[in-house]
Amino acid sequence: MNMANSNKFCTSISCMDGRIQLPIIHLLKEKFNVDYVDTITEPGVDKLFSNTNKMQEIKSKVLISVNVHGSKLIMISGHHDCAGNPVSKKEHITQIKNAISVIQSWKMPVKVNGAWINEDFELEIMEI
Question: Structural domain of residue 101, as residue ranges?
């Protein structure tokens, strides 16, 4: 069943950390005027785009969101105080930028953004 015509979807690829889920969903719904946010989570997800097997798992989930739900936006994020990827903000930003490039290389008809979620659980959008 193709839901693309009746609803507006986007896709969030984020850490499983429950503290960041609502801030991501709220920002995506408000800033990008979507009704639903498909959420793909893994611990420390921004680092996984250097792992071919994990990257393929994520891609297969993204393809469902894009091809079935009609998602037009993908946001990959990293966050402060990440237990699954305990590296500096600078390293997270590098990993997020790498993930954006990888997702763009999949040649899907979507916009790809990144976000850093700071210590106050506010999103800093990275449009590349």
Answer: 9-122
